[in-house]
């Protein structure tokens, strides 16, 4: 055999190896539905419905502010390879998702495609501004996008996911429906339990750093309408904090909600001056310790912390 | 006040209690009679809604059974569904209005208590529209396009009169002492159809004599559904060379454009009519391979077939046409990105721009560039702060200058090079401190004594930027300039930006 022949044969072998690897890669990709979500709460619901038949990745980390995610190129790659994208819509990801989608060139997950799930669809949005005026701060034109803190909305999304996953992977359609039934009944059971746990605190007023809790408040009969931020997205100012401290003292308010990505020190200062407690809360499973277990674990944590925080008031 | 009819329905499914019962149980008997009246009307609307949805479902299923699920049929189905969905939403809204108007009782549900009184801002948000309020024409998600208007201006002083400009060569750089409107720009973008996205921006600029000029900045479409990880961009756009060339002035981290970019890619940046093909390489990490092809003509193709004396380094421009495809401007780029840790990302790229220039019949230019961007941001960052980023670009140009006997300029090869390196530190929410160092130089040329675009230059610029929100910024910058063609010069600039309309997303 001549050297040239040997070279040609080596080339063929290499080609065959590459083609083989590609086929293998694509076949293994077809086995599981690749689901990409913008935030970890959607990922948790997807896991409940998809179980071990889907691969779930969240673009934003659970501790991260979902409005301020960096549009890193590695996220383009994740979107490029996704079969399903679950996004919040309602301007939640407006600051970072559009350029990623432009670069991802994946028509399966574009708006209107079967692989695109807009979680805010079918949700009754709260705080929809009648007039758009940015002098009021960072308000969202289509309403407050933090709707997943209401378990009813989680169930609406779960139903939507079972339908979407079933359409895209019809072999497992029954499996997804079964998971949905299981998740729904568990959620219904838990909701009664959560509501019972919070019944003694109905109407209690809680302070929050940022206005991201209207859905939670409404579901559990709380009043979360006093914020450290003078306007949404505007950092606390001394005169505004003085006003908040006065109100808190007058009404003997006991709790301040703070997300992991907000300024803990400001909240601590206010808490110290008013005898209240700054409470680390999150909307995303994994955002705070002991919420890693999923959506139910997250609401468990929130409900339990609120109940403990309000005890004796 | 928010009205949760839909919500209360779903809530009741959970709690297993009737709508009517629950509201009465909670001591709102006085409202019950009123509510019953309202509910009758609601039920009527609801029934209509159900019929509509049922009809839609019937249509969808029947057409699915009857037809092969080809793409066109699917598409029309999707559209139908969308229309139905919109009508349903409209009906739901009407339903809500109706129930809101007819009853002053809070949402009737065990799970949903009376919504508490809200403080002033929220109250304003939820208030109904009255004829005295302005009508918004642009509302996110409810229009076919995103619309925004941006304005960037500076006020400042320099030890140099900078007339003609020596220190600030860029079109959007501050134009000497006093006030400058650096850029006023109207930007539009949106989905054209399921296959394309469209972008456009119209620039308004004010020259030192107060004349307004209207210019077409970028206008291009981008494919969204090409197979094989390919993407085509077509129209007039900023060439994907390095990092900063694709940025508009309001996206810059400093008041002015780096010297080496002004010199080698031009005062207007490298921007031309053309097309670009991009391939997302199937590597485990992000890699993008691009090839742009442009006319390479005009003053926004500075090192190529541009006609100004600055561009041709003193030669009379030949205004060469396109004789063969080799006369087009080719801009290849390879770019990769790695997440070094969970909180650190690195992007490296290398670019080239190859094409003919107007200084001689067969004269050509080659510009090569290397760029690097690194950023650290913790995973609990507050509104994107704190962060540290480092950006560097280094460029080299080989410019074959033709002979111009009238002006006494020989055939020669000009070599220019330079780099800039900048560190940004977002040390506190809303605050960014920056430091940029840059240097540029080249070999000796025959026109150098009159050439403001050549010769050794060094510039150091610290700055401080305050972002009240994502829609405005105030920046203070000091420039220390040391150049072969002038003494040491000092400049101070105060920059202001505002944005109206849709907030464009931040690219990485």
SSE blueprint:
The complex is a heterodimer of chains A (about 325) and B (about 500).
Chain A: H1 3-31, E1 33-37, H2 40-50, E2 54-58, H3 73-80, E3 84-87, H4 97-104, E4 116-118, H5 151-168, H6 173-198, E5 205-208, H7 214-219, E6 223-227, H8 238-251, E7 255-258, H9 264-274, E8 277-280, H10 295-310
Parallel strand pairs in A: 1-2, 1-3, 3-4, 5-6, 5-7, 7-8
Chain B: H1 5-15, H2 19-25, H3 29-66, H4 71-102, H5 120-126, E1 146-158, E2 178-193, E3 196-206, E4 212-223, E5 230-238, H6 259-264, E6 271-280, E7 286-294, H7 309-312, E8 329-341, E9 344-356, E10 364-376, E11 387-401, E12 412-428, E13 431-442, E14 457-469, E15 472-483, E16 486-501
Antiparallel strand pairs in B: 1-2, 1-16, 2-3, 3-4, 4-5, 5-6, 6-7, 7-8, 8-9, 9-10, 10-11, 11-12, 12-13, 13-14, 14-15, 15-16
Task: Explain this structure.
The complex is a heterodimer of chains A (313) and B (508). The relative contact order of chain A is 0.11. Chain A has helices at residues 3-31, 40-50, 73-80, 97-104, 151-168, 173-198, 214-219, 238-251, 264-274, 295-310; strands at 33-37, 54-58, 84-87, 116-118, 205-208, 223-227, 255-258, 277-280. In chain A, β7, α9 (264-274) and β8 (277-280) form a beta-alpha-beta unit. The radius of gyration of chain A is 23 Å and the shape is globular. Chain A is α/β, with parallel strands linked by helices and 313 residues long. Helices cover 47% and strands 11% of the residues of chain A. Chain A has 2 domains: 30-191, Rossmann fold (3-Layer(aba) Sandwich), CATH 3.40.50; 201-310, Nitrogenase molybdenum iron protein domain (Rossmann fold). Chain B is of the alpha+beta class. Chain B has 2 domains: 5-126; 146-501, Porin. Chain B has a 16-stranded antiparallel beta barrel with strand order 1-2-3-4-5-6-7-8-9-10-11-12-13-14-15-16. In chain B, a hairpin with a 2-residue loop joins β2 and β3. In chain B, α2 (19-25) runs antiparallel to α3 and α3 runs antiparallel to α4. Chain B is globular. Residues 1-39, 48-69, 100-129 and 131-140 of chain B have low confidence and may be disordered. Chains A and B meet through α3, α4, α5, α6 and α7 of A and α1, α4, α5 and β8 of B.
């Amino acid at each position: 055999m001549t050297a040239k022949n040997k070279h040609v044969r080596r080339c063929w072998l290499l080609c065959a190896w590459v083609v083989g690897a590609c086929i293998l890669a694509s076949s293994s990709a077809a086995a599981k539905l690749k689901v990409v979500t913008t935030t970890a709460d959607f990922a948790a619901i997807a896991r409940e419905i998809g179980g071990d038949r889907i691969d779930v990745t969240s673009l934003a980390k659970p501790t991260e502010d979902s409005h301020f995610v960096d549009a890193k190129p590695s996220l383009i790659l994740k979107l490029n390879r996704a079969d399903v994208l679950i996004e919040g819509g309602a301007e939640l990801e407006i600051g970072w998702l559009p350029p990623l989608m432009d670069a991802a060139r994946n028509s399966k997950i574009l708006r209107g495609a079967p692989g695109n799930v807009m979680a805010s669809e079918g949700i009754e949005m709260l705080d929809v501004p009648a007039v758009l005026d940015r002098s009021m701060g960072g308000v969202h034109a289509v309403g407050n996008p933090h709707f997943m803190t209401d378990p009813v909305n989680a169930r609406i999304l779960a139903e939507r996911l079972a339908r979407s996953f079933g359409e895209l992977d019809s072999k497992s359609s029954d499996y997804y429906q079964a998971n949905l039934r299981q998740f729904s009944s568990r959620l219904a059971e838990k909701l009664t339990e959560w509501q019972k746990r919070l019944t003694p605190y109905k109407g209690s007023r809680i302070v929050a750093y940022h206005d991201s809790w209207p859905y939670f408040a409404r579901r559990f009969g709380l009043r979360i309408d006093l914020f450290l931020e003078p306007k949404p997205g505007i950092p606390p100012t001394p005169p505004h904090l003085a006003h908040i401290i006065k109100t808190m003292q007058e009404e003997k308010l006991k709790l301040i909600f703070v997300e992991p990505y907000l300024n803990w020190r400001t909240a601590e200062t206010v808490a110290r001056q008013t005898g209240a407690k700054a409470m680390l809360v999150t909307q995303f499973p994994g955002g705070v310790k002991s919420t890693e277990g999923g959506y139910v674990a997250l609401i468990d944590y929130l409900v339990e912390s609120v109940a403990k925080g309000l005890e004796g008031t | 006040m928010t009205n949760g009819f839909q919500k209360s329905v779903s809530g009741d499914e959970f709690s297993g209690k009737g709508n009517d019962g629950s509201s009465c149980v909670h001591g709102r008997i006085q409202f019950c009679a009123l509510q019953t009246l309202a509910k009758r009307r609601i039920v009527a609307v609801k029934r209509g809604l159900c019929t509509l949805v049922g009809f839609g479902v019937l249509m969808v299923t029947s057409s699915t059974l009857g037809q092969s699920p080809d793409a066109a049929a699917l598409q029309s189905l999707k559209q139908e569904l969308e229309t139905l969905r919109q009508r349903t939403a409209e009906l739901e809204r009407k339903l809500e209005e109706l129930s809101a108007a007819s009853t002053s009782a809070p949402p009737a549900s065990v799970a949903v208590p009376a919504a508490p009184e809200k403080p002033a801002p929220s109250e304003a948000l939820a208030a109904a529209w009255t004829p005295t309020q302005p009508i918004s024409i642009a509302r996110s998600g409810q229009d076919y396009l995103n619309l925004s208007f941006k304005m960037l201006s500076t006020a400042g002083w320099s030890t140099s009169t900078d007339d003609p400009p020596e220190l600030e060569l860029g079109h959007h750089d501050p134009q000497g002492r006093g006030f400058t409107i650096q850029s006023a720009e109207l930007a539009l973008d949106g989905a054209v159809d399921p296959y394309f996205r469209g972008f456009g921006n119209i620039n308004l600029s004010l020259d030192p004599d107060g004349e307004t000029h209207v210019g077409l900045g970028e206008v291009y479409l981008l494919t969204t559904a090409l197979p094989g990880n390919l993407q085509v961009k077509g129209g007039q756009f900023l060439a994907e060379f390095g990092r900063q060339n694709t940025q508009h002035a309001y996206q810059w981290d400093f008041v002015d454009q780096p010297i080496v970019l002004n010199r080698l890619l031009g005062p207007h940046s490298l921007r031309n009519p053309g097309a670009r093909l991009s391939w997302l390489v199937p590597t485990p990490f992000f890699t993008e391979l691009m090839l742009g092809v442009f006319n390479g003509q005009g003053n926004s193709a500075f090192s190529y077939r541009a006609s100004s004396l600055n561009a041709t380094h003193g030669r009379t421009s030949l205004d060469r046409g396109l004789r063969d495809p080799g006369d087009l401007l080719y801009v290849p780029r390879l770019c990769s990105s790695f997440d070094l840790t969970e909180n650190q990302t690195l992007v490296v790229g290398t670019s080239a721009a190859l094409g003919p220039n107007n200084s001689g019949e067969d004269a050509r230019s080659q510009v090569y560039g290397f760029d690097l961007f690194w950023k650290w941001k913790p995973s609990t960052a507050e509104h994107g702060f704190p962060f540290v980023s480092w950006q560097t670009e280094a460029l080299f140009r080989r410019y074959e200058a033709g002979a111009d006997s009238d002006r006494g300029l020989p055939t020669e090869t000009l070599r220019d090079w330079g780099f800039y390196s900048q560190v940004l530190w977002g040390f506190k929410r809303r605050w960014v401190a920056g430091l940029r160092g840059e240097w540029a130089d080249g070999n000796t040329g025959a026109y150098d004594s009159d050439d403001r675009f050549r010769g050794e230059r060094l510039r150091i610029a610290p700055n401080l930027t305050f972002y009240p929100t994502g829609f405005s910024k105030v920046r203070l910058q000091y420039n220390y300039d040391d150049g072969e063609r002038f003494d040491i010069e000092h400049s101070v600039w105060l920059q202001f930006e505002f944005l109206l309309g849709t907030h464009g997303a931040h690219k990485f």
